[in-house]
Each structure stands twice: as C-alpha cells, then as structure tokens.
C-alpha cells in the first residue's frame, strides 16, 4: 500500500515527531505497536484497520485539555452500517486496507463538524454519503472540554458531543449535547462558536489533508498553486476577505458618521426648541400647583358652608333619636314574630321530610304494581286480539260453509238436467263469446287508431305550445326592453342626450377628451336628433317616423374619424344596439335645394318643419332623406298627424 492511500490525523495540541511510515507489505507488522481500537462494522467488508499509538515517541506527558477528538461514531455512513472509533490524546495513526474505513473517518470528521461535502473530495452533496439502501445517516463526535479554556463547562461538562443527522431528501440537523447526553443546542451558530474556541478548522488543508488535495499539491509544480495553497492553509486568504469586509464596513460607518454630523446642527436647534418648550411646561406646572391650592381652599370653603347648614340637621337628628326607643320595641316584636314563623317552618319541613320518606318507602311497591298492571293490560290486549282473530276465522268458516252448501245444491240440481241440452247451451254460449271477441277486436282496432290520432294531436299541441312559449318569451323580453327603454326615457326627461341612449353622455364625454388631445380631424356631430328643433311640436311624430334611426346617428368628416368614433362606441355601447355613423365631408354652407325640392303650397317638406343651425347636420339630413321614399304630412287636427306616401314619386328633399 502506498503512502497516499493512508490518512493521518494530527491533534493540534500534540507535540513530537513520528518517523515516516513504510509500506505495510514491505516492513510487515510492527511489534512495538500496541493495538488500541474498538470497532463494530455490520457491512460486508471484513477488512479492519489499526489504531496505533507508539509508546516510545518523544512527547510531552501532559495532555491537551480542549479540542481533543476522543471518539467518532458513524451509522449508515458511506459503506459502513456502524463504525465506532476511539482515539488517543496524542498522534493517532489509522492503518488498514482499502475500504476498511480510513477515509470514512476523515470524511465523517469534516462532515460531522459542519464542513461542506465538496471539501472532502468524496462527494458533491451530503446525501451522497448515506449508505445505499438506507434513508438516513448519523455522525457523532466527542470533543474534550476540560481546563481553564473549556467552553461553557457548567453546561457541557468535560465532553461536548456533536451529533449530525441527514436524510436522503437533503435534510440535515445538528444536536450539541453535554457529557450526560442532554441536548444543549441545535444551532449551527453554537457549533461554530465551539470550533472557534477549540481552534478547529475543518476546511483548512493543514488541519485535515485528504488524498486528492495532497496528490494535487505534490503533483503541482506551479509556484502560483503552491502559494495559493499556502494562503489557504494559513487562513491568509480568509483574513484578506475579512479585512476587505471590515474596510467596507468602515467606509459605510464613515459615511453614516458624516451624515450624522451634518444633521447635528439641526438636532441642536431642535434641542433648544424643546428646552424652550420645557421651560413653558415648567410655568404650566406652577400654574397647576396654584390651581391645586385653590381647589383645596375651595374644598375647605365648601366644608365651612356645609357646617353652617349642619345645625338644623343636628336638631332633626336629636328628634329622631328620641323616637328611637319606640322603633326598637317594634323591632323586638317583629323579631318574636320571625322566630315564631321560623319554628312553624321547621315543623312543616319535618312533616314534609316524613312524607318524603313514606313516598320513598312506597315507591318500590308502586313500581311493582305498575309493572303488574302493564303485564295485565298486555295480556288483555293479546286476549282481545286472539278473540277477534277467532271471531274472524269463525265468520270466514261460516261463509265458506254457506258457499259449499249452495254449491252442493247447485250440483244436485244440475245433475238432474239433460246433459245434451247443457252441451247445446255451452255451444251457444261459446258462439256468443266468439262474436263478442270479434266485436271487441274491432273495437280494439278503432281504439288504437283513435289513440294514434290522439298521440299525433298531442305532439302537434306540444309543438304549438313550444312555439307559443317561444313567442311569449320573445314578447316578454321585448316588453322588458321596452319597459327599460321607457324607464330610461323617464329618467332622461330633463337630459336631451340620454333620450337617445343612456350611453350617449359617456360617448360625448369621450369625444370631447379626444378632441382636446387633437385625435379627431374635425369634431363628430351627433346624435342628429339632438342637433335640431321642431318649429311646431305637432310634427314630432311624423318627423320621428320619417327619420327613424337617423335621429340617433353620428356624422364624421372622414374615415379616420369614423374608426376612432367606432372604437369609442364599442367601449361604451357593449352589447346594446349601437347607432350608425354617417361619413361625409363637412361643409360650412347648406346645400341649395331651391330647384330640386318638393313644391307644394298645402303640405310642407320634412326640412321645412325643422330648425337646424349646424350646416353639417342640415346637409346630412338632406342627403339621408333623399335616400328614402318621399312622404307628405297632412294635419287632421291639432293632436294627430298622419304620414302618407305620395301617389307619385316627387322630388326628394
């Protein structure tokens, strides 16, 4: 076995030199070595290792008080089911074949004292050290804790036990116990404090040097790598990082101090303000003391005033005191009456108690008689039931007897008849029955035909009923819409825009916002019905019938404005019926219709009864009314107007 295959554990307090160990196969076992080991391994590997401590080393006789590793226990760790190693207080040599557990001891020491799995060069995660087929692993390390430098000796005693347990799912936990096995802590911070107290550095290669690190160090020829190893081994690298962190903290502290110094004048000013306020409060305290004195004087003045009014009360008290003997005599008489009534109450209670005892004595007999009465009632009910059953049976037998006697008489009479006439009677009866069967069959066919007709009629009635229900639901929905519209119209009675839809004010508000932002080329007009007035209200119904949905429409100058208005209507109208948009170039003057308009002295045209101020709306009405059939308006009376189509097509306005 090569030297690199062995692991050497050095105790930090031990002093002395050990000669270089030779190959076991060349030198053979040493006779001077004394075996001092205790192991228990349940794994399949039968190889063991030797723990040796030579007695002839030149070491100091005094042992270290703290930081000595006294014992390492492993359970389901790496390839060992259970391994227990006890170490001496000086240098310990662990010798054995491959797989005997040398590396397991070093790895357990690093992992058990909080080191990372990557430091051991045996695995990347801590769960990789759990034995195959097991779910958990446990490590237990005993550290000596004696002398003046001991860590909390009153809590832990002479030995600190560090136990670490980890599972397959990656969980891990610590238990730091005293010598008696009592759990003192389970925090990683407490373990770090113990290691700092004992100066144990599990990640320092000088303290624990595994095979891979030593092999890399021996094979490395680069001074840079060796210097890096030196920095890591002497903790200079960590010290440098600590200094940098401290320097950063110093800079931050310096900035904080500068900020505080800048705030100091302001705080001093606040102190002066508070001192002035305190002086004011002191004056207030003096006033409060003066008020307290005045309150005391007022209290004594009140007492004096009451004493003056006390004399009449004293005289009244003396008068009442003179009447006291008479009242005391009445009290004595009342006490005598009370004693009398108490004695009567006691006598009544004694009688009541005696009656209660009699009731208790008679209670068992009462229960017994009650049970006997119940049994007799039950017997009587059973007897009555039996009597009724026998009576019914007797009546039934009597009826059967009468029926049998009648049958016997009938048989006696029939035996005297002529059997030939009886046969003819049966044949006639059969013929009649056959005719009845035929009639019933014909009646059955008729009934089935009627049933089929009834089924068809029922199906038709169901279909008609379904259609009627559909029409009813449609009418009901229409009625609800009309009612909602009517409510909206009533609500919008004083709002000229809500008459054309509850959403119109919101649409107009959005149009105004877009106009302020300059989104429209020209402001849209609408609704059209809100942009003109009737010269005479009698034309309201004819104009509404003639214009139709045009009164709720909007006008846009171009397609850009139309698309923008479309998006506004989509946002506010939703599922409700939305107004139409008429796109036409806006003009500042009304069209000249003098040559093409309807000429009639008797009936006015639509445009004649409207008062339109906006040329855009007027031109839109002229354009749109030209697209519909021309109507004449005839006035029958002041309350009714009728729209009738002209007999011939006139010029459209």
From TrEMBL:
Coiled-coil regions listed: 250-277, 317-450
GO CC annotations on file: nucleus; site of double-strand break; Smc5-Smc6 complex
RecF/RecN/SMC N-terminal domain segment(s): 69-203
Record keyword ATP-binding present: yes
GO biological process, one term: double-strand break repair via homologous recombination
Assigned keywords, A-Z: ATP-binding, Chromosome, Coiled coil, DNA damage, DNA recombination, DNA repair, Nucleotide-binding, Nucleus
GO MF assignments: ATP binding; ATP hydrolysis activity; damaged DNA binding; single-stranded DNA binding
Principal localisation: nucleus
InterPro entries reported for this sequence: P-loop_NTPase, RecF/RecN/SMC_N
Subcellular location: Chromosome; Nucleus
Region (Disordered) residue spans: 1-54
PANTHER family the UniProt entry points to: STRUCTURAL MAINTENANCE OF CHROMOSOMES 5,6 SMC5, SMC6, STRUCTURAL MAINTENANCE OF CHROMOSOMES PROTEIN 6
Entry similarity comment: Belongs to the SMC family. SMC6 subfamily.
Protein known as: Structural maintenance of chromosomes protein 6
Organism: Mytilus galloprovincialis (Mediterranean mussel)
């Amino acid at each position: 076995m090569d030297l690199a295959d062995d692991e050497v554990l050095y105790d930090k307090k031990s002093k002395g030199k050990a000669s270089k160990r030779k190959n076991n196969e060349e030198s053979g076992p040493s006779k001077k070595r004394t075996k001092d080991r205790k192991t228990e391994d349940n794994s399949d590997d039968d190889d063991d290792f030797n723990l040796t401590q030579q007695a002839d080393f030149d070491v100091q006789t005094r042992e270290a008080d703290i930081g000595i590793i006294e014992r390492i226990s492993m359970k389901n760790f790496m390839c060992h089911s259970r391994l227990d190693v006890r170490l001496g207080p000086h240098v310990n040599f662990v010798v054995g074949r491959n797989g005997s557990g040398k590396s397991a001891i070093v790895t357990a020491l690093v992992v058990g004292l909080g080191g990372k799995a990557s430091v051991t060069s045996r695995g990347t995660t801590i769960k990789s050290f759990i034995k195959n087929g097991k779910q958990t692993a446990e490590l237990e390390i005993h550290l000596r804790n004696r002398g003046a430098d001991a860590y909390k000796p009153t809590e832990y005693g002479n030995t600190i036990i560090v136990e670490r347990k980890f599972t397959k799912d990656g969980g891990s936990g610590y238990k730091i116990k005293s010598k008696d096995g009592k759990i003192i802590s389970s925090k990683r911070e407490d373990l770090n404090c113990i290691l700092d107290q004992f100066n144990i550095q599990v990640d320092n290669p000088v303290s624990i040097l595994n095979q891979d690190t030593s092999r890399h160090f021996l094979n490395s020829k680069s001074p840079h790598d060796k210097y890096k190893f030196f920095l890591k081994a002497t903790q200079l690298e960590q010290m440098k990082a600590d200094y940098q962190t401290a320097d950063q903290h110093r800079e931050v502290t310096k900035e904080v101090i500068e900020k505080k110094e800048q705030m100091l004048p302001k705080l001093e000013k606040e102190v002066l303000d508070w001192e002035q306020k305190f002086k004011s409060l002191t004056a207030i305290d003096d006033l409060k003391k003066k008020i307290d004195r005045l309150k005391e004087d007022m209290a004594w003045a009140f007492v004096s005033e009451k004493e003056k009014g006390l004399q009449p009360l004293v005289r009244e008290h003396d008068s009442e005191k003179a009447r006291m003997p008479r009242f005391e005599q009445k009290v004595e008489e009342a006490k005598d009456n009370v004693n009398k009534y108490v004695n009567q109450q006691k006598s009544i209670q004694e009688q009541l108690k005696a009656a209660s005892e009699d009731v208790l004595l008679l209670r068992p007999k009462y229960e017994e008689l009650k049970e006997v009465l119940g049994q007799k009632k039950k017997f009587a009910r059973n007897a009555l039931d039996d009597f009724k059953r026998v009576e019914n049976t007797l009546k039934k037998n009597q009826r059967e007897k009468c029926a049998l006697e009648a049958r016997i008489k009938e048989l006696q009479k029939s035996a005297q008849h002529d059997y030939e006439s009886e046969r003819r009677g049966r044949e006639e009866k059969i013929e009649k029955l056959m005719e009845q069967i035929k009639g019933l069959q014909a009646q059955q066919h008729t009934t089935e035909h009627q049933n089929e007709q009834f089924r068809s009629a029922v199906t038709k009635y169901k279909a008609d009923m379904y259609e009627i229900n559909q029409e009813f639901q449609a009418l009901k929905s229409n009625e609800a819409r009309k009612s909602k519209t009517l409510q909206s119209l009533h609500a919008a009675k004083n709002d000229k825009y809500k008459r054309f839809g509850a959403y119109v004010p919101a649409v107009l508000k959005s149009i105004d916002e877009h106009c302020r932002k300059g989104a429209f080329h020209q402001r849209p007009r609408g609704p059209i019905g809100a942009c003109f007035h009737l010269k005479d209200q009698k034309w309201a119904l004819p104009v509404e019938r003639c214009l139709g949905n045009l009164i709720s429409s909007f006008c846009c100058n171009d397609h850009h404005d139309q698309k923008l208005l479309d998006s506004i209507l989509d946002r506010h109208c939703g599922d409700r019926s939305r107004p139409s948009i008429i796109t036409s170039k806006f003009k500042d003057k009304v069209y000249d219709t003098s040559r093409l308009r309807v000429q009639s002295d008797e009936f006015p045209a639509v445009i004649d009864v409207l008062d339109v101020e906006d040329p855009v709306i007027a031109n839109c009405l002229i354009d749109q009314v030209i697209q519909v059939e021309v109507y004449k308006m005839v006035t029958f009376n002041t309350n009714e107007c009728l729209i009738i189509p002209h007999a011939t097509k006139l010029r459209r306005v």
